[in-house]
Amino acid sequence: MPDSLPADSVGIVSPQIYHFDTPIDLACGQALDSYDLVVETYGELNADATNAVLICHALSGHHHAAGYHAMDERKPGWWDSCIGPGKPIDTNRFFVVSLNNLGGCHGSTGPSSNNPATGKPYGPDFPVITVGDWVKSQALLADRLGIQCWAAVVGGSLGGMQALQWSLDYPDRLKHSVVIASTPRLTAQNIAFNEVARQAITSDREFHGGRYYDFDVVPRRGLMLARMVGHITYLSDASMGEKFGRELRDQAYKFGYDAEFQVESYLRYQGERFSETFDANTYLLMTRALDYFDPAYDYGGDLSRALAGTKCEFLVLSFSTDWRFNPGRSEEMVNAMIAARRKVSYSEIDAPWGHDAFLIPTPRYTDVFTAYMDRVAREVGA
Amino acid sequence: MRPDLEIIQQWIKPGHHVLDLGCGDGTLLDYLQRERGASGFGLEINPEHITTCMGRGVAVIEQNIDTQGLGNFDDASFDTVLMTQALQAVRRPDKVLDEMLRVGREGIVTFPNFAHWRLRWGLALSGRMPESEALPYKWYNTPNIRLCTFKDFEALCRQKGIRIKSRRVVDGQHQNSWLARLWPNLLGEIAIYRITRENEQ
């Protein structure tokens, strides 16, 4: 954090907890009798409540999308590059709502929260949550905030899936769905990577069938491995090459198996840091939500039929070097929207950073995102 | 509004679903949406144009007709497929025409006439590749790689069984002069063709 706040920052923000005590029925058949959602908001809701934008987070994201919690916070929120005064999601015009999803580990009710029935953390008893469940809980949050219709629901990766799901489940409650670096369903390869991550966690000796809280331990090694393999899929071969190449930490080979290459120590560092801050059960839950997402499933695999009832307009963006959810996956979505005669705009952004590109402001990305959101703002009188 | 677009918009009926190949900054689609109640998409590859389209609410898809084709569009899914001043810039205009009339019931095509007298005159006199207002490039950097004359285009349509529903020939200022009507292939600079498959109305 710099000494003073940048002019295009939303500044110091503080999260708020919303408690819900009407039971929410979940796709798995279970219900949560009560739950908390932790939420940050940026900007002002206008008198007609037409200028609200919902931000949906990805696998390891949370409610802290922009600004700083304190002057000494090391880094701003995870999407600070796109949310703020004068940024693509302009907080001078929009009222931005960002929450930690159910099942998360940053303040919303999740596996690490106390189960009121037992007084102990839910652990493996926490129900598996789907993208549809998240959207449902987000709609209840919108009710609480007095937002009948979002100007836009916006998300990247798993967040983009929520933006798409919104258009299907609540067609009258959003004007625009912005789906970035996402996919209409995971491929076998995507699921395979998730399975490796889950195996890493569940085979850790400290996992204890998901009840590690009771033993006052954390399956740190498993979570670290899960993050390492995940992280590889977020970057591109080229960006890893540019960042690390074959660079060694010392000058020469040591003929051993410690982290000698820079890329090894980077991955270990990322994995270790992640394992200190993220809950293993939440990681399992988030990857499963990814696996299950397939809105075309109930329509014989025909996404355009699933989209027939939608009413919003769509913006779909992909990134040229994203191999996790490659541009072809976005084009599948776009083509289904075209076939369903939905209004959709699409651009493939040339960027070298792989899947992570959706978090990194490049001129082309910023230009199209800004132009589109500017028009959304004009349309809703913001 | 550009006079050729003025002519085209008269052929679009309210509620028509339109595909604009090489939609540029979206001027025409924007107009058709607002003034004619049409819907549809533009295809474009120029980044600045794509940004402009998004900013003005024109649904634009980044798609290269040459490399990606129109395979992602269903048969007869559009009332009209437009292609203004782009036919001469694609690699296989003949195939693009086929595709236009596969996905659309009707096509509207505009392109510069390479047999306009000024171009003929320029080539005959100077022995150099002609340049004009409609074709302002050098031979080595021109995006217009498939130049043709009105006669060439009409011969291709005949060969493909494409019916020309109407043709408007205009000069460089897009004026529909009586001279251009009289000797189109000599005096017309830009033609606006409305085409369909022979078996359609």
Would you spell out the secondary-structure blueprint of this structure?
The complex is a heterodimer of chains A (about 375) and B (about 200).
Chain A (H helix, E strand, L loop, with lengths): L15 E5 L3 E2 L5 E2 L2 E8 L9 E5 L26 E2 L4 E2 L4 E5 L14 E2 L4 E2 L9 H15 L6 E5 L1 H12 L6 E5 L7 H15 L17 H15 L2 H7 L18 H16 L2 H13 L10 H4 L6 E7 L7 H13 L4 E6 L13 H17 L3
Parallel strand pairs in A: 5-8, 5-11, 6-7, 11-12, 12-13, 13-14
Antiparallel strand pairs in A: 1-4, 2-3, 4-8, 9-10
Helix pairs in contact in A: 1-2, 3-4, 3-7, 4-6
Chain B lengths: L2 H7 L7 E5 L5 H10 L2 E6 L2 H10 L3 E3 L2 H4 L9 E7 L8 H11 E9 L4 H10 L23 H11 L1 E9 L7 H5 L1 H4 L2 E8 L4
Features:
heterodimer; A: 382 residues; alpha/beta; 8-stranded mixed β-sheet; 10 helices; 14 strands; 33% helix; globular; B: 201 residues; 23% strand; SAM-dependent_MTases_sf (chain B)
Description of the molecule:
- The complex is a heterodimer of chains A (382) and B (201).
- In chain A, 33% of the residues lie in helices and 15% in strands.
- Chain A has helices spanning 131-145, 158-169, 188-202, 220-234, 237-243, 262-277, 280-292, 303-306, 327-339, 363-379, and strands at residues 16-20, 24-25, 31-32, 35-42, 52-56, 83-84, 89-90, 95-99, 114-115, 120-121, 152-156, 176-180, 313-319, 344-349.
- Chain A has 10 helices and 14 strands.
- An 8-stranded mixed beta sheet of chain A has the order 1-4-8-5-11-12-13-14, with helices on both faces. In chain A, strands 2-3 form a two-stranded antiparallel ribbon.
- The mean pLDDT of chain A is 97.
- In chain A, a hairpin with a 5-residue loop joins β2 (24-25) and β3 (31-32).
- The radius of gyration of chain A is 21 Å and the shape is globular.
- By secondary structure, chain A is α/β, with parallel strands linked by helices.
- Chain B has 201 residues and is an alpha/beta fold.
- Chain B has helices spanning 3-9, 27-36, 47-56, 65-68, 93-103, 117-126, 150-160, 178-182, 184-187; strands at 17-21, 39-44, 60-62, 78-84, 104-112, 162-170, 190-197.
- In chain B, strands 3-2-1-4-5-7-6 form a 7-stranded mixed beta sheet, sandwiched between helices.
- Chain B is globular.
- The chains are: A alpha/beta (382), B alpha/beta (201).
- Chain A binds chain B through residues 313, 315, 331, 334-335, 338-339, 341, 343-348, 364, 367-368, 371-372, 374-375, 379, and chain B through 17, 39, 41, 47, 50-63, 72-74, 77.
- Chain A: Belongs to the AB hydrolase superfamily. MetX family.
